[in-house]
Amino acid sequence: MTDYVAIITRFAPEGVIGEMDGVYSSWATDMPAGFSDGQIAKLKHIVPSLALAIKSVSLARMTRTLMETYLGRDAGQRVLSGRIVRGTAERIDAVVWFSDLRGFTRITDTAPEQVVPLLNDYSDVIVSAIHAASSSREVNATVAVCEGS
Predict the structure, then answer these.
(1) DSSP 84-130
(2) How many CB atoms lie within 10 A of CB 68?
(3) Whole-angstrom Cα distance, residue 74 to residue 78?
(4) Minimal CA–CA distance to 100: which of 62, 63, 44, 148?
(5) What is the pLDDT of residue 141?
(6) How is 34-80 classified by DSSP, letter by letter?
(7) In contact, 67 and 78? CB cutoff 8 Å
(8) What are the pLDDT digits (tens) for 17-63?
(9) What does each C-alpha distance from 10 to 7, 45, 98 come to in angstroms?
């Protein structure tokens, strides 16, 4: 490597997504003279478009993850593909499963900082087991938590 250029492309404040406030890119060459001024200018010209494309892909992935997390894998994919719209219904076979976590109230009272990690782990295990045991590709598995006295 004979030359190295790093370019930071920041998003406008309203375009920040979580901690993603921009795209950091780095470029290297092994040409003996390194980068020319013209090549650096071209990189600086094209990197904002590349940053926008990276941001678009990131938004699509986050949207898919959110949909699948809160609606379930199949329903999330169907919403994103436009196959589920408000005001329409489809008959499906469904199972509603209730389970009780032994000692949950004690955990919430004595170690509240452990509640969310515990529920995340529980959800991962249950949803993974449901998907692994299913012969159907159209399985929605979502865990909802209800705390009651």
Answers:
(1) --TT--------------TTHHHHHHH-GGGHHHHHHHHHHHHHHHH
(2) 20
(3) 6
(4) 148
(5) 61
(6) ---HHHHHHHHHHHHHHHHHHHHHHHHHHHHHHHHHHH-HHHHHHHH
(7) no
(8) 778 888 999 999 999 999 999 999 999 999 999 999 999 998 899 99
(9) 10, 14, 46
